[in-house]
Amino acid sequence: MRQMIADYMETGFLDNISEMFRHDPTLFSHVPYLMSDLRGRVRLGTVALAEGLIPEFRKELRDQISDLASVLAEDHPTVRADAVYLMGLIGGSEALSHLEQRREDPDPQVRALIAETIEELKACGRHPVQP
């Protein structure tokens, strides 16, 4: 299922995938896997998916933060940066905590994005648990 979603994401079937997630929220468990995919279109599609579904499914996305945090240890800086961005969108105290633990990322651009995301989460109040 994960591979199928990733392949569909790469080919641009975001609307279909969004509907799948709306009808089966257990699919949110695939978000960390999708964010670790080396294909940029898959990661970009996953971010777009989350952006569109956050209003309805913030809790389901926040439930993936712990697994999504493991993507922060991937070898590729772009993959890590995309995971940081998504964690910033999702927000929550757990996301903030994981980002603070990764402040010393080996890549200077990822490190800067982590610092910026931490500050944004603190400034806009997206770090507390929201309904």
CATH architecture grouping: Alpha Horseshoe
Low-confidence stretches: none
Percent range of helical residues: over 70%
Distance between the termini: 29 Å
For this structure, what is the CATH homologous superfamily?
Leucine-rich Repeat Variant
Q: Helix count?
A: 8
Integer average pLDDT: 94
- The portion of residues forming beta strands comes to under 5%
Number of strands: 0
In CATH terms, what is the fold-level topology? Answer: Leucine-rich Repeat Variant
Number of domains: 1
Q: Over all CA atoms, what is the radius of gyration?
A: 14 Å
Apparent shape: globular
Judged by helices, strands and strand pairing, the structural class is: mainly alpha
* Secondary-structure element series: HHHHHHHH
What is the CATH first-level class name? Mainly Alpha
Q: Main beta sheet: strand number and arrangement?
A: none
